[in-house]
């Protein structure tokens, strides 16, 4: 396990990942091994969640569809969301009460599909709020997402660049300043 920590500190992520899996298999009841596994797998889940969001933006750019049209993720984007969800579940299998992993899960289901994801995300957030009433971030997040967002017609996409992260001006593509090029609605994109 110390080897896994050392590998992590050296920035050798794949090696740390492999060693943490080994440590977890060897000592499934060791709290330190479990914590290390959770930390390393959570880092991976965060990367994959960001990648899924970015894959959707790229998909919008490529397909040149408007966010107010009927929107369906392409197969690559759907796979990216599946991978991120599986990575989060990896953490929760070992550490079911992991606060950050549960927050990330709420964010992912909400981002992926608001219609089915909103009630699921709110359920997770309300359970977290009940477990830790002193945490102000949770009720703040609940208020942000409990009602459909007016600014973006509840699409989650930046209304100025239509989720593309860039705008075409004078035949030049420029980074959208309203969303810092991320294509995410500035009002409801907190989660
Ligand atoms: Zn919005
Ligand atoms: Zn924008």
Q: What does the model show?
A:
With 191 residues, the protein is mainly alpha-helical. It has a domain at 2-114. It is built from 7 helices and 2 strands, in the order H-H-H-H-H-H-H-E-E. It has helices at residues 2-9, 13-26, 31-63, 75-94, 99-112, 114-131, 137-145; strands at residues 166-169, 172-175. It has a two-stranded antiparallel sheet. A hairpin with a 2-residue loop joins strand 1 and strand 2. Helix 3 packs antiparallel against helix 4 (75-94), helix 3 runs parallel beside helix 5 and helix 6 runs antiparallel to helix 7. The longest helix is centred in the N-terminal third of the chain and has 33 residues, at 31-63. It is globular and about 60 Å long. The two termini are 33 Å apart. It binds zinc ion (2 copies). One zinc ion (ZN) binds next to loops.
Short description:
It contains 7 helices and 2 strands. The chain is mostly helical and 191 residues long.
Layout of strands and helices, then pairs:
Blueprint: H1 2-9, H2 13-26, H3 31-63, H4 75-94, H5 99-112, H6 114-131, H7 137-145, E1 166-169, E2 172-175
Antiparallel strand pairs: 1-2
Helix pairs in contact: 1-2, 2-3, 3-4, 3-5, 4-5, 5-6, 6-7
Bound molecules: zinc ion (ZN) (2 copies).
């Amino acid at each position: 396990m110390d080897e896994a920590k050392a590998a992590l500190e050296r920035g050798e992520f794949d090696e740390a990942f492999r060693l943490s899996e080994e440590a977890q298999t060897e000592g499934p009841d060791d709290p330190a091994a479990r914590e290390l596994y959770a930390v390393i797998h959570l880092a991976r889940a965060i990367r994959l969640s960001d990648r899924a969001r970015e894959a959707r933006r790229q998909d919008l750019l490529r397909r040149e569809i408007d966010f107010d049209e009927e929107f369906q993720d392409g197969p690559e984007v759907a796979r990216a969301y599946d991978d991120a969800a599986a990575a989060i579940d990896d953490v929760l299998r070992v550490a079911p009460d992991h606060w950050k992993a549960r927050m990330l899960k709420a964010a992912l289901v909400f981002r992926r599909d608001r219609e089915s994801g909103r009630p699921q995300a709110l359920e997770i957030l309300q359970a977290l709020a009940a477990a830790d009433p002193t945490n102000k971030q949770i009720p703040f997040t609940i208020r942000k997402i409990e009602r459909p967002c007016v600014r973006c017609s509840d699409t989650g996409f930046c209304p100025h660049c239509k989720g593309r992260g860039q705008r075409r001006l004078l035949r030049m593509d420029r980074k959208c300043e309203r969303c810092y090029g991320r294509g995410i609605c500035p009002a409801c994109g907190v989660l």
